[in-house]
């Protein structure tokens, strides 16, 4: 079993958050039509989930589950258990509506389960980082 570096886990978390920010903002807008609620729900959710995603990734690196099953179980634990609870709480606090909380949370989580399965599969095959931070060179000569 291949171990991922901390840097790869960080990059994976950031890319996943960027995808999630746009997706959650779009869904929240559909159900609330309020830019303030869209901003608050999206900001709080994704700020919390950068850390949650990183910790989730590091914990799963210790797993001995077969890869195909692992992707599914990871998606379910991350999106259903962690995602539902935290997003539902944030959505309810911001909107004050059980109906909006339910619509936002269930739509977001169900769609992200499918996204996450394929996202994790993609990263398991990816050899290099998108942004090789350690190889960035700064030139002071102006060239």
Could you explain how this protein is built, in words?
By secondary structure, the chain is an all-alpha fold. It has one domain (6-126). Helices cover 77% and strands 0% of the residues. The protein contains four helices and no strands. Helix 1 (6-32) runs antiparallel to helix 2 and helix 2 (35-60) runs antiparallel to helix 3 (67-95). The chain is elongated.
What features would you highlight for this structure?
143 residues, 77% helix, mainly alpha
Ranges where pLDDT stays below 50 over 5 or more residues in a row are 134-141
Q: Report Rg.
A: 17 Å
> How many individual helices?
4
Listing every helix as H and every strand as E from the N terminus to the C terminus, the arrangement reads HHHH
Number of E strands: 0
Helix content: over 70%
Give the overall shape: elongated
Quaternary structure classification: single chain
Topology of this protein?
Blueprint lengths: L5 H27 L2 H26 L6 H29 L2 H28 L18
Short description:
With about 140 residues, the protein is an all-alpha fold. Helices cover about 75% and strands about 0% of the residues.
